TrEMBL record:
Every HTH tetR-type domain range: 8-68
Protein name per UniProt: TetR/AcrR family transcriptional regulator
DNA-binding region: 31-50
Domain of life: Bacteria
Length: 214
């Protein structure tokens, strides 16, 4: 194995271990010593790749954001009706949160660090993406034209964030899919024109399947 390739593997090993620790206990309670132990590497290897815990947290947030934006781009180019894309985004983000510790850690870190001037870009970009899809849904006639896309985009992101946080507190996110379905059941009738509401069940059932790796 080439030295550069081995270094990249070690770096990702550290990021994965840090994500797991941040997901478990948050930024303040996570220690570099615990991250070293969980990652199965030496302290020297950690400091070779990262200057500090803050530096490491920033990389976890960046990786989470990249994962989420990759899904947004794929769903946006899926060819599905825009309102179905909005539903797909909610369920795909839910799946990522449930299955990927980097996504869970990145979201937790972004929320925790927002109190001290942490990064806003993940939420700004997510809102902008939802706004773009909402505008397309209005243009396609599945959302009433009195809805302001920027407001709907911000609302969907805010509602999703609250739903997943409460689901985590009460059930460890075991009921997250169910709660997202309830959220959509409440929201969709209020934004769809009466002539399109016969499609609500189909729209609620819209899902995007990530391509198989390898």
């Amino acid at each position: 194995m080439l030295k550069q390739e081995r270094a990249l593997i070690t770096r990702q090993q550290i990021v994965n271990g840090a994500a797991e620790m941040f997901d478990r206990v948050g930024y303040e309670r996570a220690s570099l010593a615990e991250i070293v132990e969980l990652s199965g590497i030496t302290k020297g290897a950690l400091y070779f790749h990262f200057k500090s815990k803050d530096d490491l947290a920033g990389v976890v947030i960046e990786e989470q954001h990249a994962i989420s934006m990759k899904a947004v781009e794929a769903i946006s180019s899926s060819g599905a009706p825009a309102l179905e894309q909005l539903v797909m985004l909610c369920y795909e983000m839910s799946r990522e949160i449930i299955e990927d510790s980097i996504v869970r850690a990145g979201i937790r870190l972004t929320l925790e660090m927002s109190a001290v001037g942490g990064p806003r870009e993940p939420y700004v970009d997510w809102i902008a993406s939802c706004e773009h899809v909402a505008a397309a849904a209005v243009a396609e006639g599945d959302v009433v034209d009195t809805v302001v896309p920027a407001e709907l985009g911000r609302f969907i992101v805010g509602a999703f964030t609250g739903v997943q946080m409460v689901s985590n507190v009460l059930t460890g996110r075991e009921d997250l899919y169910e709660r997202i379905d309830q959220m959509l059941t409440l929201v969709l009738p209020g934004i769809m024109p009466p002539r399109r509401r016969h499609k609500i069940d189909r729209i609620r059932a819209a899902r995007w399947t990530p391509p198989a790796e390898g």
